[in-house]
Each structure stands twice: as C-alpha cells, then as structure tokens.
Design a protein that fits this description.
The chain is of the alpha/beta class. The protein has 23 helices and 18 strands. Strand 11, helix 11 and strand 12 form a beta-alpha-beta unit. It is globular and about 85 Å long.
Length: about 600
C-alpha cells in the first residue's frame, strides 16, 4: 500500500530507489559493506558471537541459586531458543550474503524486520516478546564489538556510531553498487551525522530521508552541496518505511512517497528526466562571466568541504573558493586531530587545484551540531553544555586550544606560498577575540620564520553571524581585511531559533525584517569602507534572494557548486539600476517576501 510522509524539503530534485534502513539500537553499531571474499569471515563472526552468547547464557542459567524464581530460568531458556532461531541467525546471514552488510548492520536490519512483525501481532503476550528479541540481538552486537576490538576489521576502517542518534556510514571499501543490483538505493535513518554525509560522494545512495533535522542543519547543508535530494524532519519515516520498500523522495515538496503506484512512479521518473535536461541547459552557462545587464561584475564563489571538491567548484564555473569548511578534516578520526603537515597538504591541494584563484579557508568551526569525536582529557576535555549552539564553539573553541589553533594557522600560512589564501574566522563577537586572532596569526608566522619554513601572505577576515558583530560592523572593518556573512547562524541567533530543530523550523525566516536590516547594514558598511564583503550562507545559493542581495550592494556570493549555474542565470538577467524599489520595499514592508516578488514583477513588466 502506498503511503505519504511529509517533512522539510532541504535539497531539491527527485530521488527514486529502494530503502536502506538504518535501524535504531541502544548499542554502538558499525555500518559498512564487505567485499565478496569477506562474506565468509562475517558469517564466521556471527557464528563465534552466537556461540559465545550461548555459553554466557548457559553459564548464567547454571549459576542460578536454588531459591531463584523459576521465571528467571524460563527467561534464559527463551533467550537461548531465540539465539538459535532461524528467523534471527539465518535471516541475518541473508543480509550478509545478498546485500554484503557487515555482521552488525545485518543484525540491526533483521531486528528491524522482526520488531515490525511483533508489533503487528494481535496477541499481547506475543507482542511483548519483542523485548526478548531486542535483548538477544543486543547481546550479539556487544559480543561482535568485543570480537572486532580483539581482531581489527579490515577494509575501509568503519566508524563506530550510535544508530539511535546521528548515523555515520563509513565509506565502503568495495563498490557498494556491486551488491545493490540494478536498483538505486536511498538511505532512511533517524538522523545522519553532518561529517558522514560526505560519504555520499563515494556511495550508491541517491537521496536520504531522516526523522529529525531542519532546513539549515549542517546535514541538510552538506546534502545540498552534493546536490542530493533530501527530506528531513519526516518524524515517522524510519518507522513507516521498511527495508527494500520503493521510495520516492520529492525534494521540492518535502514529500516522501512509499511504494508508489505505477502511475505515480512514472510521473516522478518523468520529472527526473526534465530536471536532468534543465541541469544540462544550465551547465552551458558555467564558463560565462557573471555580469549583469548594466555591466556589474558579480563574483560567484564555491563552498567546499574537502580538497577533492575543488575540481567540482571549477567545473561549475566558480571563480574561487569562498568557504572551505576545514572542520570536516577534523571529524570521524576516532579522536585524533590532523597534524600541521596533514592540514598543510589538504590546504595546498585546494590552492593548487584552483590555479591562482582565491581560496578562503575557515578556521575549524566545531561545536553545536558539529561535535568532534574526541576522548576525554587533554584538549578533548570540553564537554557540550546544555545549549551547545551558545557554548564553546568556533573561534571560542580555537582560542581555548591555542596550540591547535596556531598549528592550523601555520598550515594555512604555508599553503599561502602556493596561491592566494584568505583566512576566515567564525563566530567573532568581541574585541578581545579580534586582538587574540591577530596575535595568534602573528605568532604562527613567527614560528614559521624561526623554523625556516616557506609561507605566504594572507588576508584575515571575520564571519558576521552573531547579531553583535553586525551591529558593531564599523569596528570589525577596522580590524579585518574582509567580512563574510554567515546567514545560517545570523538568522538563528537573531531570531533565537535552533536551526536543527524541526519543531521550530517554521519560525526560521530569512525574510524576517530584522535579518534583512542587519544584512543591509553590514553590506552597506563594508562597501562604504571599500572592504570586500560576501555572503557564504544558504541565502547566497537561493535564487529567491539574488536580486534582493544585489539591491543591497552585494557583489560576491559563495555557495554550493551545484547552485552556481542557477544563480548565474539570475545575475545575467538583472539590471541593478532597476533594483532600487526592491531594496526599499524589502526594508519597509511587513511582508518582505511578497513585496519583493511584486517589485520584481513590476520591474520586469
């Protein structure tokens, strides 16, 4: 039966495929594909784990004191019976053989199937047996974890994750499509960790659906950067969708259709083809300079997450990198941070790939919804507070770890010897932070001089993403070479809304008059002081705001490479001399979105 699930649209387009469900578990679970020659090894791991758990249960039963209630022995017997039940072990082997899931993922997948079967039983006693199955599976998962710790798993080095929270999927060692057959796959999960969204670049998943999340959560941002159709905040999606269900993700409408009828499926396939034709048409603009009808040159830059993304930026027609999110070099490393040389190689790779075009590298922006998986103690001693979005994050974290900060700055300065580099510092709000940043840069440079290491000149800029920074923009412009407006956090902090929380996502409003006033204030002040200013948040890549930002005087946009062609098309059709009315109504209207659309329609008439 076909069902529809509504969520929040975060990445446009249509994805069609079979569901790969990542089930929740109270135990850390690894999810990765295994190659054909590893299948027997995974089956053997299951056998060893089952025997170990059986021996443990038999031991517990033998050690029961005579006065113990007979129900305890009966419960252990039930668990032993389930442990040898074909519905558990034999079916789990199916996931390993046919889908090449690792043993832990296979067990989790089968647990999901069994849990649904128990939920649908009419007999209350039988429904309650689901808890017994869960307990047996969790014993097996823990035992598999002990086996993995004793004998390291080969291949790509999967990352342990808590599936009930964000679900990192390690990049598969073999090509996963070898095991998926001809059918495309979509991922369905409670949530997907931001750093692990990057693995989509090397995986078979054509889209994803999550129960939680908001339009500007970092998971959604990375999905858009990779042009993957996605719907988040779909609440019951992971409960309603079953393994291998056919799923349509309508990223334009925020709709998920499960097991669509043939007519509906064909309609969405038609939309897919139309979308591909439109993208092909827009790609023809990638080497056309972004110049308005009245001759205003507009700089279209790219936001990237990893060094390999530079090639996509150039291919999309970007004239530089406006935001290299360096924090993704720090994530999914099991607590080990990248050293200076490793960072230098990554930054230099991007600089070299851009062939003389400017590269803006943001210092590590961790905290809130981008935590580091670091052990306690030492530099990892900082705990997440009750409200991590307002806690020790971004520049606050860097200044609290001066050794790490100077190490990153040295790597950036060394990369600057190979091409133009701009250092961008996130979440600056205080004069003391401005002074500390410049002192850290100077000390890092002196350390390189003392060590005789080659380095280059850099410009240093601040992200304007805290309302305090926007209000005191004049002072910022005295201390920094350029500014870049991070609209995602600026909106979040201005409106006091957690942008990753779907419960308040309807209140996240880029058109809010307060937000527009701050944007106009920052852009106007930077232009008056002849300091470069750009927008690197999601508004830069949203064509609904292109004319508005141009009317404010913005001439530098930084966005996901996949958005550049559409924004360039808007720029090529604009005469900025006719945008005065757009700016006026945007800043004076109680409904700026409607007023701007009306003003644009009038100008084009």
């Amino acid at each position: 039966m076909s069902i529809q699930v509504f969520g929040i649209q975060v990445s446009r387009g249509v994805a069609i495929g079979r569901a790969v469900l990542v089930a929740s578990s109270r135990v850390d679970v690894e999810h990765y594909y295994v190659s054909a020659d590893r299948v027997p090894q995974e089956i053997e791991r299951l056998r060893v784990a089952r025997n170990a758990v059986a021996a443990e249960l038999e031991g517990l039963k033998a050690d029961l004191p005579p006065e113990a209630p007979h129900e305890l022995a009966a419960l252990l017997d039930v668990h032993l019976m389930l442990l040898h039940d074909e519905a558990v072990i034999a079916a789990t082997k199916h996931w390993v053989h046919d889908r090449h899931y690792n043993a832990e993922w296979a067990l989790s997948a089968q647990l999901e199937v069994l849990a649904r079967q128990f939920d649908e039983m009419e007999d209350a006693y039988l429904r309650e047996r689901k808890a017994d199955v869960e307990q047996v599976v969790e014993r097996l998962l823990r035992e598999l974890g002990r086996i993995a710790a004793a004998v390291p798993v080969g291949g790509a080095g999967p990352t342990k994750v808590v599936a009930s929270a964000a679900v990192p999927l390690a990049p598969p060692a073999p090509a996963a499509r070898d095991f998926a057959g001809e059918d495309p796959l979509v991922l369905v999960a409670a949530d997907v960790a931001p750093a692990d969204m990057l693995h989509f670049k090397r995986s078979v998943f054509t889209g994803f659906v999550t129960d939680v999340g908001g339009r500007t959560s970092h998971t959604a941002i990375v999905a858009r950067s990779m042009d993957i159709p996605a719907v988040v905040g779909a609440r019951e999606a992971s409960r309603l969708i079953r393994q291998d269900d056919w799923v349509v993700i309508d990223g334009d409408a925020g709709l998920v259709v499960v097991n669509p009828s043939p007519i509906v499926l064909e309609e969405y396939r038609f939309r897919q083809r139309q979308s591909e034709l439109e993208r092909a048409r827009l790609r023809r603009l990638r080497h056309t300079p972004a110049v308005t009808l009245d001759g205003e040159v507009v700089e279209l830059l790219a936001n990237i997450e990893q060094p390999d993304d530079a090639a996509a930026a150039l291919d999309a027609g970007a004239v530089g990198v406006g935001l290299f999110r360096s924090e993704f070099l720090f994530m999914n490393r099991g607590g080990a941070l990248p050293g200076e040389d490793e960072q230098f190689e990554a930054y230099r790779a991007v600089v070299n790939s851009m062939h003389g075009l400017p590269v803006t590298i943001r210092t590590v922006d961790v905290g809130a919804d981008k935590p580091l998986d670091r052990p306690g103690g030492g530099e990892g001693r900082h705990e997440h507070g009750l409200n991590p979005a307002l806690g020790l994050r971004a520049i606050r974290w860097s200044l609290a770890e001066p050794g790490m900060f100077r190490q990153q700055l040295r790597a950036m300065l060394r990369a600057a010897a190979f091409g133009p580099v701009r250092i961008l510092v996130p979440m600056v709000a205080h004069l003391s932070e401005m002074l500390a940043i410049h002192e850290a840069v100077a000390r890092a440079r002196q350390q390189l001089v003392d060590a005789g290491k080659r380095h280059g000149a850099v410009t240093v800029g601040a992200m304007i993403e805290v309302p305090a920074a926007a209000v005191m923009i004049e002072r910022f412009l005295r201390h920094f070479d350029f500014v870049s407006i991070g609209t995602n956090d600026l909106i979040q902090y201005t409106l006091a809304i957690d942008r990753a929380d779907e419960a308040v996502s309807h209140l996240y409003d880029p058109w809010h008059p307060a937000v527009l006033a701050l944007l106009r204030q920052v852009i106007g002040a930077a232009n008056a002081h002849r300091k470069p200013v750009s927008v690197c948040g999601e508004m830069a890549g949203d064509s609904a705001f292109t004319e508005l930002l141009l009317s404010f005087g913005l001439r530098s946009f930084s966005m996901h490479p996949s958005c550049i062609a559409e924004i360039k098309q808007r720029v090529l059709r604009v005469d900025t001399r006719q945008l005065g009315a757009v700016e006026a109504v945007a800043l004076s209207s109680e409904s700026p979105a409607l007023a701007v659309r009306a003003a644009l329609a009038s100008a084009q008439a």
